[in-house]
Amino acid sequence: MNIEDIKKHLLTISQFEISNIIDNSFKHKHHAGVLNTENDLTHIEIHIINKNALKKVDIHRVVYEKLDLFIKQGLHSIEIKILN
Which domain CATH number covers 53? Predict the structure, then answer.
């Protein structure tokens, strides 16, 4: 699992635009929730342009469904910033 794999999955979403995906794992390297994970990629930040005025909960649902496999592989935190 790496940031490029995540980008490929997220960029297939058509309901809104992904403007940026950032790996913030280095900021949380020694946090208890990620100490025993095998993957270095644990925290990401996603910037979304909400071009269709979707509800926040719907955007989160789409993102989490799309990243389910990565969450199961150790992705610990997904920070979503929605821009209008």
Answer: 3.30.300.90
Supply the pTM of this predicted model.
0.82
User: What local confidence, expressed as pLDDT, does residue 38 receive?
Assistant: 65
Hey, what are 56's tokens?
Answer: 């926040």
- Range(s) of the domain holding residue 39: 3-83
Query: pLDDT value at position 76?
Result: 81
3-state helix/strand/coil string of the chain:
CCHHHHHHHHCCCCCCEEEEEEECHHHHCCCHHHCCCCCCCCEEEEEEECCCCCCHHHHHHHHHHHCHHHHHCCCCEEEEEEEC
